[in-house]
Amino acid sequence: MDYKFKKILIGFDNSASSVIALQKALHTCKVFNTPLYVVNVKDPKSNAKGYNINIQEVADTFGVPIHYMEKTGNVSREIHATEKEIKADLIFMGAHGLNGFQPYWIGSNALRVISASNCPVISVQADSAQTDFKNIILPLDNSSETRQKVPYAAVMALAFGATIHILSVSKDKTEETRNRIEIYGKQTLKYLTDIGIKVTYDLRQGSSVAQTCIDYAIERNAGLIMMMTETESNNWFMGTVAQQLVNHSPVPILSIHSRDLYLSGDTGY
Questions:
Q1: What is the Cα–Cα distance from 86 to 66, expressed in whole angstroms?
Q2: Is the Cβ–Cβ distance between 85 and 50 less than 8 Å?
Q3: Cβ distance 74 to 48 under 8 Å?
Q4: DSSP 8-state class, residue 127
Q5: Strands 163-170 and 198-205: what pairing?
Q6: Which fold has domain 8-126?
């Protein structure tokens, strides 16, 4: 698998979480040998103050070139417009940016960026500074779309030399559900092992899926959780599990739409 991210974008608002997201985005750019596109969207209604950092200086420490843009207006709309403008294939953003220029970045804007995007989005909390992408949590449920995130997990694992921790998971305790998620998990285990990725496997049932994923990620000292957004026909809707993970996970979340089939055909998975 020779896929690489070529256009990485970050929505930056000077909050604590976006500063951490910036560092993770720059590290990712360095791994994939690509520049970082930085868009700072200023809301004219906001008077909040954030961290005063020199983005160019931070980028220089990683040896990553940047393209910096300033825009004014609605945060999610401007980030989405920039994504389409540059044809981004990965977006980083801070979640719960309490101290940034955007006091309304919390919740609706973060989720809207993820829901509206046409590419994967990595959302980062301020307390995830100490984690890296060396351990990746790959939850698999009993939905038909769940395995669409496997190719992206493989790309990240191969690039970062990471271990993927497959977690077959469901709130449903029935034997039928157990058999189904176990089949998906074991198929994925074989696929990833065959392409040379380090993998572990576990199965958990009976509790909140979001909380189970968070607890498992903490157990594994993970730096990334893969997630499908469960998007329906309305672009601004996200499933409950997706919202809970984005809003509450101390571990960064890589969100992928079920409509995103770009990598699935490439891998033959």
A1: 13
A2: no
A3: no
A4: G
A5: parallel
A6: Rossmann fold (3.40.50)
- Taking the C-alpha atoms of residue 204 and residue 26, their distance in angstroms, rounded to an integer, is 34
Radius of gyration of the chain (CA): 18
Fold of 135-267: Rossmann fold (3.40.50)
Model confidence, pTM: 0.89
| Helix, strand, coil shares, percent, the chain, to 5 | 40, 20, 35
Residue intervals of the chain classified under CATH 3.40.50.620 are 8-126, 135-267
For residue 91, which of 221, 269, 260 has the smallest C-alpha distance?
A: 260
Predicted confidence band at 261 (pLDDT cuts at 50, 70, 90)?
low
* Cβ neighbours, 10 Å, residue 240: 11
- DSSP track, 217-261: HHHTT-SEEEEE----SSTT---HHHHHHHHH-SS-EEEE-TT--
Mean pLDDT of 249-264: 78
Tell me the pLDDT band of 111, cut-offs 50, 70 and 90.
Answer: confident
Q: Dump strand ranges (E) for the chain.
A: 8-11, 36-42, 66-72, 90-94, 121-124, 135-140, 163-170, 198-205, 224-228, 253-256
According to DSSP, the residues that pair with 204 across neighbouring strands are 169
141-160 tens-digit pLDDT: 988 788 889 999 999 999 99
| pLDDT exceeds cutoff 60 at 97 | no
